[in-house]
Amino acid sequence: xxxxxxAFFLLALAAIAGAVMMLQLTNVVHMxxxxxxxxxxxxGLYVLLSAEFVAxxxxxxxxxxxxxxxxxxxMLTRHHADDKExxxxxxxxxxxxxAFAVLAFGLAVYAGIRTLDFGADGSALPADNAKAIGQWLxxxxxxxxxxxxxxxxxxxxxxxxxxxxxxxxxxxE
Amino acid sequence: MMEQWLESAPSxxxxxxxxxxxxxxxxxxLAFVTYSILAERKVMGFMQGRIGPxxxxxxxxxxxxxxxxxxxxxxxxxxxxxxxxxxxxxxxVIAFAPSFMVLAVVPFTDxxxxxxxxxxxxxxxxxxxxxIVGVITGGWASNNKYAxxxxxxxxxxxxxxxxxxxxxxxxxxxxAGSMNLVDIVNAQQDVWFLFAQPLAFLIFLIAAVAELNRxxxxxxxxxxxLVAGFHVEYxxxxxxxxxxxxxxxxxxxxxxxxxLFLGGWHPVAFLGWxxxxxxxxxxFCAVVFVFIWFRATFPRVRADQxxxxxxxxxxPLSLANIVLTAVVKAWFF
Amino acid sequence: xxxxxxxxLSLILFCIGLYGALTKRNTVIVLICIELMLNAVNINFVAxxxxxxxxxxxxxxxxxxxxxxxxxxxxxxxxxxIAFYRNRKTVRVDEANSLKH
Lengths: 173, 333, 101
What we know:
The complex is a heterotrimer. Chain A is mostly helical. Among the domains of chain A are: 1-78, Up-down Bundle (Four Helix Bundle (Hemerythrin (Met), subunit A)), CATH 1.20.120.1200; 128-164. In chain A, 73% of the residues lie in helices and 0% in strands. In chain A, helix 1 (3-24) packs antiparallel against helix 2 and helix 2 (28-48) packs antiparallel against helix 3. By secondary structure, chain B is mostly helical. Chain B has helices at residues 2-7, 12-47, 64-74, 85-101, 120-128, 130-141, 145-176, 181-186, 193-196, 198-211, 223-226, 236-261, 276-297, 303-332. Chain B is globular. The two termini of chain B are 34 Å apart. By secondary structure, chain C is mostly helical. Classes of the chains: A mainly alpha, B mainly alpha, C mainly alpha. Chains in contact: A-B, A-C. At the A-C interface, helix 1, helix 2, helix 3, helix 4 and helix 5 of A face helix 1, helix 2 and helix 3 of C.
């Protein structure tokens, strides 16, 4: 067992543990923070996959920005502590049906990927992948890149408009 | 020397070596924290016509901080009854751990550096963002309205000022052609980026002070309105952890400014016979002095001014700086 | 490490996210579960970039696009949540059942 294998198993364990804790905990803030562990473990996996640029972006966007706005949204809305038992929808039947469907999906996909191997050892990746990503992004992927920037602008404006108080409602208050 | 170690095959002796080096760096950082607190009190004292600490440890109060830390460790460790216990305990650790992790990519001299990461600058920004999670967690877990307000303010402020911080550093990245901090230092062999990127330096310095939650941007712990901000319920060594994180970030940020704008370990003009470590330390101390100077001379800004300043002044300026730098680089290089 | 190990991990995370998105009733948690599913997909992109039939950084570029879109989705989703909370005083996703308040 090499060091990479050990690192993979530890990170995979951390990622799955965070996700399972997210399902099991009842407090919303605890759930978000347990998912931070998953996001960080996934960033570690990206480093193992020699994608350090994506790993850093993962930490920056997920653990930094998205988690913080999730926490802000939680603190700006009210989450009753007394309806812990009502955190999930439906009853046991609904849960069982969802679990069955998810399990069936998982097993079907697992049968497909179990022995998947293309024989690549990963040595073909350029070492300086930030530079390679930049060059692809500004040549081959220029149009998608611009569209993503427009999408982010639209999301920014849309979020402000949605979260702003309605003109009529603000006058009433 | 370090490079050979970093590239050698992993073994137990290597692990021991890196552990030892990490412990050495921790010792250096803790010594810095001890004496920067003393320096802060002394410098502020002199600026305000006082003497500052002068009792413990001789005429200059050299052991004052040590005594303070010992007192802190002896204090009762209180956890409020209504606090969220696991998160209350965890929050100082979440806040402190990233502050030490960011030091891994900062190159102190040619030989003394740890990780030679291709995306070093982004790594610094990304990992330092994790502290915000610790701060907001601490504020929420204390179950105290002042702590929560302080935590929310801190998160909003640090997220907002991260953007001009990155945007202004992009000018440096454009000129150096790399995000690797070693390459950035090497690109300043002839001209420091302080002179090539004066606007970026100003924006970066202001955003850095805001990121550090220091005066004039110390709203998260504004004592006159929020008691003490997000750590109001903390005491003893847990409180010390928050303080430690703050000062380790001051160390890291001063080192980063030295690396990005002041030429790192490169000497001034003809004084090349002085070793690089001394130059780094000198520039570093100058930056720390500026931080302390700011604290002694500026009043605190208001919360609305704080946000407007980040989004309406610093962000457009840093965007303009990027465009300007790109144009200059495309035409003249 | 083989490709299938990464794919299996990503499958597990995707299934957990899917289960959470189907059963949780708190809107924030449903959004978070969707983020988890997107993360699982990103692991696939990056794993194929290294161990796939044609190793290159295209997988990384796609993962970056996915992260950008996920960030936009989270921002708009949370803004919609706050607008919804203002009208209905609740964050339960199953009570969002009328078009006008």
